[in-house]
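[09:14] KT: can someone run the structure on this one? pasting the chain below
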Amino acid sequence: MGKRVVIPRALLYYEYFPMWKTFFEYLGAEVVTTGETTRSVLAQGSARVVAETCLPAKVYCGHVISIAEKADYVFVPSIRSLEPQVYNCSKFLGLPDLVRGTVKESPPVLDIEIDVNKGERKVREQIHWLGKHFTRNPFKINSAYEKALEVDRAYQRLMREEKLTPPEAIARMFGIEAEVEKPKAKRDSRAASGGSDVSILGGGDSSMLTIALVGHPYNIYDTYINHNLMQRLKSLGVRLVTPEIAPEGALDLGTAKLAGKPYWTFEDEVVGAAGHYLDADVDGLICVVCFGCGPDSMMTDIIQRAAKARGNKPLVTLTLDEHTGEAGLVTRLEAFVDMLYRRRADSRGLARASV
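[09:31] RB: done, structure tokens below
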């Protein structure tokens, strides 16, 4: 059996897990992941870092602690830049050092640095350094890298064309159980037409509301920190659309419309998605961010200004941290959905009156 590599189920897991899993397994490694985020995982991560650390980074450290001493390596890449002159926030740049400094019991950290501003050659050097932990054959490492890129393209295409969430797409690709919780509460009567077996991002009829959920995947799909947000919205009779299912190139165009050019890596998941869906046929938008995130705070300001400029398109921002109360979040969601239904009823009444 090959060496065991842990990929924590946090931060960029929902972005790149299929690609990373493919790369390591091609080289003969055994890939394991941590479980879903729990109260214990968050508590352990929060106890190791300073209070000002953002919620996703606390969650990440908690996941590493949960798997400590159970693997040969933990994969913690430093993603500096994926586009020329577009940079990541500090939590991604310093993530390997954060893990080493706070999780002393962590297995050895595989900490490649990805920065396209240094050129393709430097990126390849980092990939080869990573691959040499499992094989000395450079041709096999090249093949693993190309195969991983191919799988990543298939992953993105699957979500876009089949309207699947990342957990659903990962389950489809690797034949594992989908990491989506079932709703705990009874479904609202308005959602009855959707059926309990309908995918979150599809199905339903024209009477259902359509809401765009924009934000980073580690906020949208971690059901513990967001209190099962997507299923709660589904139980209220809502059809959701997310950044992953937007048409190819739509997020880049959305970013250009709202911000001119991107400055932050993964800005397309927030500003780009909002730019696309603000001009699409959706009833409203929900922007999910974390307290204390500098880049996201600037992005949400851009989105709020754009929504106001488009006739006050309905928009609510949900700011998460470890103290976010479930009852307060549910109340805000219910109030927002009720407002959208009233807004729709009022607009249809005006339309009938004008005929």
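[09:33] KT: thanks! The two ends are 73 Å apart (CA to CA).
[09:34] RB: yep, looked fine to me
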